[in-house]
């Protein structure tokens, strides 16, 4: 392995880490503003013009807060849990092509850290490992609400991993590869995945999108940390930067899943032109905005409704979808 | 207690029973209900409503320290001491009724007889830490001198928090400009009361 490749990879990792940590902060600003506007409020207004420096103030607050390890918690696990959430979110990003490849100063840059041939499997697997953050954090917290949240988290993740995996199976069968770049290249020739195969792609898209809300723990399926039932769930006992790591992990996950959905189903970055890259960013922005939009509009479902939806509705549809795809491909 | 008027009220026009369907018991009926609910698109109605509000951009927030809600003229906040419209001098005659009636003992008034043999107020303080803003002082005042104002921000870093005569008295420049507002709450006379009042028959 050459030195240049190593250096390039390290630089790419640092860039992704910095950009998406910052985006997690800016994402909170946008979330607060969008939610405020949808509820006819103003949102943050006082720190900086139109409150734009609010996330800076929040970051300073989180970083300088005392790191409290409560009595009776299982300290090593309690300490490591937020790191798992944040780390798995970023590790999963290694196989996501954020932009088409471009040339800068005569050097071709591939904006993907590792184009491994099992890309989508790797991403979903690592995001699944992210479950251990809420699970271990909630179980180690010595708090009954945290424990409830951990149990709910395990149930939600296990259920929706099934839907995610099955819904993605049909596109994988159609493309015949697990690399997101191959997905993109396939869609250049055959059009967007959602218009493919007599609606099989569309059904997969909708299922994957629904499952993405459970994977990221966003509002219709926000019951892992539902304020009105179980305080902040697994985050109840956390404060300062450890809580901030959970937060960064959640927002980074939202951004990464917003990249994955268009890459698999909506044509990705297209032919790799500048417009294609912009189109990808526009699609990502829409999916990120949709996460905020649903939070303003939709109520949360109960855990039993969530399980019901997963096992009795979404999973049968996903299985039938795969069957149709298989028959159509024969 | 007699509930006859309440029980016999006419509800025929505006009240109706909401039509609630029975819960389905058969699996097939349950399935039909699921399908109906799934494709009715109520989720999209919710999405549309919040998006409409976002586009309309019609905010109802009041940025409190910069903007304030208009406050009712009868509101009982920090006291004010009014001046006479005729001579711009203070209305208080030092009778001490407010001090007597104050149920939380927060008013302290000191008076002396001045060189014209008139009573003069030398010291008048209200401990706002004790005051419960009941309005008795404004009600009992025979001269409409001590009244309540609209300044409700009286947060303080001490429990004892005094306001004195000079703070409460209408500033003389405001008075000269005709800017003194009469209190309309507790104890105030109604507008145009002077036209309706009958002269005291002093003849007999």
Write the SSE topology:
The complex is a heterodimer of chains A (330) and B (204).
Chain A: H1 3-38, H2 54-64, H3 75-92, E1 102-104, E2 107-109, H4 119-129, H5 132-140, H6 144-175, H7 180-190, H8 200-216, H9 227-230, H10 240-265, H11 274-297, H12 303-329
Antiparallel strand pairs in A: 1-2
Chain B: H1 4-7, H2 27-39, H3 42-56, E1 79-81, H4 97-101, E2 107-113, E3 119-127, H5 136-140, E4 146-148, E5 162-164, H6 165-168, H7 172-176, H8 193-196
Antiparallel strand pairs in B: 1-4, 2-3, 3-5
Give a quick precis of the structure:
With 330 residues, chain A is mainly alpha-helical.
Largest sheet of chain A: 2 strands, antiparallel
Kindly report the oligomeric state of this protein: heterodimer
Number of strands of chain B: 5
Summed up, the helix count of chain A is: 12
The largest contact between protein chains, plus residue counts on each side, is: A-B, 14 and 15 residues
Q: How much beta of chain B, percentage-wise?
A: 5-15%
Largest sheet of chain B: 3 strands, antiparallel
Question: How far from one another are the termini of chain B?
Answer: 51 Å
Instruction: Estimate percent helicity of chain A.
Output: 55-70%
Integer count of domains of chain A: 1
Order of helices and strands of chain A: HHHEEHHHHHHHHH
């Amino acid at each position: 392995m050459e030195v240049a490749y190593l250096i390039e990879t390290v630089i790419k990792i640092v860039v992704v880490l910095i950009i998406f940590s910052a985006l997690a902060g800016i994402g909170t600003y946008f979330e607060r503003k969008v939610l405020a506007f949808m509820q006819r409020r103003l949102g943050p207004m006082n720190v900086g013009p139109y409150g734009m420096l609010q996330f800076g103030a929040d970051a300073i607050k989180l970083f300088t807060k005392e790191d409290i390890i409560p009595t009776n918690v299982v300290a090593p696990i309690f300490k490591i849990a937020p790191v798992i959430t944040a780390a798995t979110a970023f590790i999963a990003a290694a196989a996501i092509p954020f932009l088409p490849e471009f040339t800068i100063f005569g050097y071709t840059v591939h904006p993907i850290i590792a184009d491994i041939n099992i890309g989508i499997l790797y991403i979903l697997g690592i995001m699944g490992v992210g479950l251990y953050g809420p699970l271990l954090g909630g179980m180690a917290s010595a708090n009954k609400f945290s424990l409830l949240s951990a149990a709910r988290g395990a149930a939600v993740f296990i259920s929706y991993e099934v839907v995610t995996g099955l819904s993605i199976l049909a596109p994988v069968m159609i493309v015949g590869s697990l690399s997101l770049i191959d997905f993109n290249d396939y869609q250049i020739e055959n059009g967007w995945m959602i218009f493919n195969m007599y609606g099989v792609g569309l059904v997969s898209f909708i299922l994957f999108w629904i499952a993405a809300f459970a994977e990221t723990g966003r509002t219709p399926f926000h019951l892992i940390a539902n304020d009105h039932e179980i305080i902040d769930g697994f985050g109840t006992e956390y404060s300062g930067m450890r809580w901030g790591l959970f937060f960064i992990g959640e927002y980074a996950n939202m951004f990464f899943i917003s990249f994955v959905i268009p890459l698999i189903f909506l044509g990705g970055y297209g032919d790799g032109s500048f417009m294609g890259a912009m189109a990808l960013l526009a699609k990502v922005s829409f999916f990120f905005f949709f996460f905020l939009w649903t939070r303003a509009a939709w109520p949360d479902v109960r855990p039993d409704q969530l399980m019901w939806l997963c096992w009795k509705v979404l999973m049968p549809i996903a299985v039938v979808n795969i069957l149709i795809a298989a028959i159509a491909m024969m | 207690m007699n509930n006859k008027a309440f029980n016999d009220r006419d509800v025929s026009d505006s009240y109706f029973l909401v039509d609630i369907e029975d819960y389905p018991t058969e699996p097939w009926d349950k399935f039909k209900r699921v399908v109906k609910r799934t494709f009715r698109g109520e989720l999209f109605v919710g999405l549309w409503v919040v998006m409409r509000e976002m586009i309309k951009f019609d905010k109802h927030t009041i940025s409190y320290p910069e903007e304030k809600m208009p406050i009712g003229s009868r509101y009982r906040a920090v006291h004010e001491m009014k001046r006479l419209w005729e001579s711009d001098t203070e209305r208080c005659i030092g009778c001490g009724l407010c001090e007597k009636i104050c149920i939380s003992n927060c008013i302290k008034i000191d008076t002396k007889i001045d060189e014209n043999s008139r009573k003069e107020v030398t010291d008048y303080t209200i401990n706002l830490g004790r005051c419960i803003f009941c309005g008795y002082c404004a009600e009992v005042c025979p001269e409409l001198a001590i009244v309540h104002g609209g300044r409700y921000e009286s947060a303080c870093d001490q429990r004892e928090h005094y306001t004195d005569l000079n703070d409460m008295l209408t500033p003389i420049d405001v008075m000269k400009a005709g800017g003194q507002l009469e209190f309309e709450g507790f104890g105030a006379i109604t507008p145009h009361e002077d036209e309706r009042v009958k002269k005291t028959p002093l003849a007999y």
